[in-house]
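TL;DR need structure tokens for one chain.
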Amino acid sequence: MKPAQPHPVAEIVRVFDDNALSQILFGPENANLERIERQLGVLLDTCGNSVTISGPSGSVKVAGSALDTLYNRIRRGQEVETGDVDAAVRLSRYGASMDDHDSLTIRTRKRHIAPRSETQAAYLRAMRDNELVFGLGPAGTGKTYLAVAVGLSMLLTGRVGRLILSRPAVEAGERLGFLPGDLREKVDPYLRPLYDALYDMLPGEQVQKRFESGDIEVAPLAFMRGRTLGNAFVILDEAQNATPVQMKMFLTRLGEHGRMVVTGDASQVDLPEGAVSGLRDAVEILEGTEGVAVVSFSDRDVMRHELVARIVRAYQEREDRRNAAPAPRERGGRMEDG
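>> reply
TL;DR here they are.
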């Protein structure tokens, strides 16, 4: 057997024309550069406003592209956070750039929100171009956050008149009347991720004002029956916990000039054992229907801590092994392993 060939070693130098901006790019105590080093296995040496990148040639090229992207972002007055560094590296691996998706950037009162992976970019395009979008995949991929961003943007620009947030309240068995408080207080625990996204994009007093005026509304899935949701952007989150009957009821609420986004992870169903997930059922029925888009995320799109992506991948690999295992065969009236 031939010994493994080492990766060609390369070295390039990036010089940034503004000392102050280059220090922002490098991060506190060069934290951003160290993050790129860990992810790509390269060495970044700084001297003033220049960076020497050395290591495997492919990784050196990716690091250079990521640094260029981040510097351009800073030059436009945009912030660079840890997630932006990860996004620049992630996109550069596939020959893309955050700059490629600038037209998809959503500008809210508190922050600018741009896609951090190719799948996120496809998701934003799908929500822009279709009346009904399914966002499928593991936690931490931005399905819910981006849906709230698009819905809020459409509300603020007058493209819709209301933003409606919904979720199945599985843990309460949909018997919300037994919980204390008014309707909003009853469903708050189930809709907290949606609230968190709203407060990340709008000042708190504006969020409260929108709730009071009815521009933003929360409604558990059980309370959707009989309504027609026209001129509204409606988000159904954690939809894997809706039954097929509930899902059909929800989807048929769509009214004139309305938009719907349905998000969920088919591997995280909390319904009683043996119950069919309405999310999986709806996607099977509607995929390919005109006006409907299905966008699937994977562990590569996880935007949380690096370990989250590895956890998601490990669970998926185990599920794949189980699905690939031969099914037990029946012999002599008994089930036996093959």
